[in-house]
């Protein structure tokens, strides 16, 4: 069996490598020559637990290779980005371009699977495009009977940092344009997925993916809204959540400086865009989470202003704990706004960054390590709950003014400035 994976990013590359390990011959297609060269030399261009060893193994055994150009295959898996534009409209042009790329080499009996998070109807749109480009092949659809090509939508649902484990163990939702398409795709996933593979329609599967991430966004928005309300009321939100979660049917998530990453902060807009009138809660949740970032900037500024001569350590830049991914990171947004305002007083501590991210170039802010920050800085804005930060004991934080947006230092005493005004506490 020959499998082609179009798009060698955070999902495509791990998927390609796992399929290769299950014994199939896999060709990874990417538009970047750098990515293609890196993979062909057995290395990886993204950080993900255990991915480097896996890729090296399957490339050296000749099971995975990468190319800029497409070749005939039995299965095509499309894993390209689906960003949103400035006005939050989904952009499916990469998906349609991937379909254009594979169209010339398609043959009867092939399976085409879309994995990219997509607005409802994208798989149908891809089928329509393929039908136009290849009128000689019978594409699936109502009333078509037995089609030459099987087309399905099978969203990934893996968590960065656990991608390889979750690709194998998570249940999969397999949405066929027709039930026959779904069965064909099911046979493919069964080869490397241990979780349950459940078939449905392509449109339902598209919606399932959007709903999962919107559910999480709405729940995080609840926690973030609560944190602002509790702060004004002078109540410790972390304690409130901990206690409320002892109720058998309550499970509140954790507040933070906003929602980052390229999925949860994006996908709900696909639903809002498709039905703005009815997607009221989903839109509001997005706004609440975005607003939390502004709120954190304002509160951090209030604290920094209480200690005018002192350096400020912003702890963490990643979009969440223990990963090196800074895309759409609320921590970067907060720290960059503080850096533009306070310049060289701002020190950035990020164990996962090797150099100063571009957002900070020219601001005067510098990257320093945690030990130096604990020696040099009087004010701390804690933005990411990396394990390294959690492990700083209370006695190393004595005398620091701390704004802890993740609630990992509950024992931090409030520092009162010499002016006597009370500072924001941890
Ligand atoms: N966050 C909070 N509080 C929480 C949980 C998360 O503030 O209690 C923040 C994080 O700090 C981060 C953001 O939300 O900034 C998103 O992090 P995450 O861990 O919730 O999710 P992602 O973006 O890493 O991965 C999500 C997952 N979706 C769900 O859990 C429903 C993953 O399963 C998806 O595969 C992935 O999106 C995707 O690719 O769509």
Automatic annotation (TrEMBL):
Molecular function via GO: NAD binding; oxidoreductase activity, acting on the CH-CH group of donors, NAD or NADP as acceptor; UDP-N-acetyl-D-mannosamine dehydrogenase activity
EC number annotated for this UniProt entry: 1.1.1.336
Listed GO biological process terms: polysaccharide biosynthetic process
InterPro entries per the UniProt record, alphabetical: 6-PGluconate_DH-like_C_sf (IPR008927), NAD(P)-bd_dom_sf (IPR036291), UDP-Glc/GDP-Man (IPR017476), UDP-Glc/GDP-Man_DH_C (IPR014027), UDP-Glc/GDP-Man_DH_C_sf (IPR036220), UDP-Glc/GDP-Man_DH_dimer (IPR014026), UDP-Glc/GDP-Man_DH_N (IPR001732), UDP_ManNAc/GlcNAc_DH (IPR028359)
Catalytic class of the enzyme: oxidoreductase
Residue intervals of the UDP-glucose/GDP-mannose dehydrogenase C-terminal domain: 313-411
One Pfam family of this chain: UDPG_MGDP_dh_N
Alphabetized UniProt keyword annotations: NAD, Oxidoreductase
Family in the record: Belongs to the UDP-glucose/GDP-mannose dehydrogenase family.
Protein name, as recorded: UDP-N-acetyl-D-mannosaminuronic acid dehydrogenase
